Amino acid sequence: MSAAAAEHDRAECRGDDATHWPRVPVGLVTTLGVMAGGDNSIEVEGLVREFKKGPRAVDGIDLRVEPGEIYGFLGPNGAGKSTTVLMLTTLLPPTAGTARVAGFDVVKEGPSVRRTIGAALQEAALDPMLTGREHLRLQAALQGIARDERRAREQELLARVGLSEAADRKVKGYSGGMKRRLDLALALVHRPRVLFLDEPTTGLDPQSRSALWEEVGRLARDEGVTVFLTTQYLEEADVLADRVGIIHRGRIVAEGTPSALKADVGRSTVEAIPAEEDERARVAEILLRFGDPTQASPKGVAVQLANSNGSLADVVRALDEAKLAIANIQLHAPTLDDVFLAKTGTSLEGAAEDDEQDSDAE
Amino acid sequence: MTLLLNQIGRIAWRSVIRTARQPAAVIPPLTFPLMLMAVNSNGLRAATHLPGFPTKSFLDFFLPFSFIQGALFAATTAGTDLARDVDTGFLNRLALTPMRGAALLLGELGGAVALGALQAFVYLGVGLAFGVHFVTGIGGMATLLLLAILIALGWAAIGVLLALRAGSGEKVQSQFPLLFFLVFISSMNLPRNLIEVSWFRDLATINPVSYLIEGLRTLIIEGWNAQALALGFGVAILMVLGALGGASIALRQRMERT
């Protein structure tokens, strides 16, 4: 995905009208809204988790997520993402370090943390024999929501995630996307201030993925919910997250906004393929005015741009002035995979394979 | 207290709904014990001619076994379903709510006991319809149902304990045949004093299941035998307390949260 496309998707997720899922009437936003006040941040210092016969799954991570921010925790399988989420949601005690969620210590104030957070953990944990509505009723009752409020909340959330029509069907007949949406609704029943989503779109089709991104973006934008999202999808982190932390083998190797991280690792490259092969030298001559030569396809010429902002237009203009016919021209902006590669020496996909092999070896 | 009761009620409701929607979990526990009762009460009728056999009707003698077997089926379902909750992460979802561990345990047991009680009424109804005679009358029937429900609670607690320790439905199912074995080496088919094979008689004597069956049986064919009832209720209560204690510890480990 190009940087421009990613920016466009990000803008859609964060700002524009969501069209894939039914919108909630304006009046309902306040009733669904997060609890007023309070600190919605996440602060982590030196967090470690060791398992008895394994390596450190999480090896001393520090991070801070600001209230209302979407923080993308990006890494391959086995990097330590889910272990971190389990610790932050109080389901796994840390071996060392401290973490505060919504102002509460995850070790000393577990019940207070749980009251303020919502979580959709890996794999939608649903009962196939219950209906969507029954799940919401059970969750609302266990969260201690007053009986007279439950029905209204149930209707609101079902409408929000587009499951009103399927509400009375057993979950075993739901698609993967519907299960994920129900999972999200369940996490929102008690109006959490901080939302943890552990690989929420794994296995979803592009349409369901996009719909979920929109809803997560809306939660942060309209309701000020802080979102901690783990993912192994570069595109997801790029499109959805305000800031990204890249985790590799239990350590955070890079952190920042997606654009800052990408800008940090290098400049964009432009590759042009001339329509006539004997014009290759002339095309190269013009491209070299804009940057340093770099590896290209056999028929093409590529340069790494000296200035990554807006130089593609200049390149096109120069080629046009020289009356050179171009068969194809491409701008390749750095991706988060390039960031991962720069920081770890391996691509995200390769790291996933390595980690899986490590797990097998153990 | 109200909140805890509400949580227990919700978990029990879910347990009942979930089981009721799985025909494979409802029909065998209702039909298999009745089928075995029908087969054995006819096929083993000749046993009533043995000198010292306590009744003329093998159906009267055998009916109590149905309660034991049915409760064991219900416990298998409860255990397997709970193990699946562990396996799928549903338990983690529950752990993220303010639900207390006791609510989960008692709710799951409540669901299993509700089904066990339903089964007990069916077995009793079918038994009476086919001519089972209670020497202890209505009071004996009520006492039998009480003991049957207590036994269902005990088996269910064992099911929950196995589920929390194993964490997988398959592992739980693989362990239940051992419990069935325990049931079959009891005094289910003959009074212990009439079992001629000494090792079998010895095993049946040290097998607590024998005392559960005999506690139920005495109400139908003997009368108010205080010793048999005390042993039946005593074993059932010990089973409930032991399994509940173990399940509480297993739940604390399984539902580890800060």
Summary keywords:
heterodimer; A: 362 residues; alpha/beta; Rossmann fold; Alpha-Beta Plaits; 2 domains; six-stranded mixed β-sheet; four-stranded antiparallel β-sheet; 14 helices; 22% strand; elongated; disordered C terminus; B: 258 residues; mainly alpha; 10 helices
What's the short story on this structure?
The complex is a heterodimer of chains A (362) and B (258). Chain A is an alpha/beta fold and 362 residues long.
Low-confidence stretches of chain B: none
| Structural class by helix and strand composition of chain B | mainly alpha
Mean pLDDT of chain A: 82
Structural class per helix/strand content of chain A? alpha/beta
Give the DSSP E fraction of chain B (strand runs of 2 or more residues).
under 5%
Q: Which percent bin holds the helix content of chain A?
A: 40-55%
Number of domains of chain B: 1
Low-confidence stretches of chain A: 14-37, 356-362
What's the end-to-end separation of chain A, in Å? 36 Å
The number of helical segments of chain A is: 14
CATH superfamily of the largest domain in chain A: P-loop containing nucleotide triphosphate hydrolases
In the CATH scheme, what's the topology name of the largest domain in chain A? Rossmann fold
The sequence of SSEs of chain A as H and E is: HHEEEHEEHEHHHEHEHEEHEHEEHEHH
Largest interface: A-B, 32 and 24 residues
Percentage of residues in DSSP E strands of chain A: 15-25%
Radius of gyration of chain A: 23 Å
**Oligomerization status of the protein chains:** heterodimer
Kindly report the average pLDDT value of chain B: 90
Number of domains of chain A: 2
Pattern of helices and strands of chain B: HHHHHHHHHH
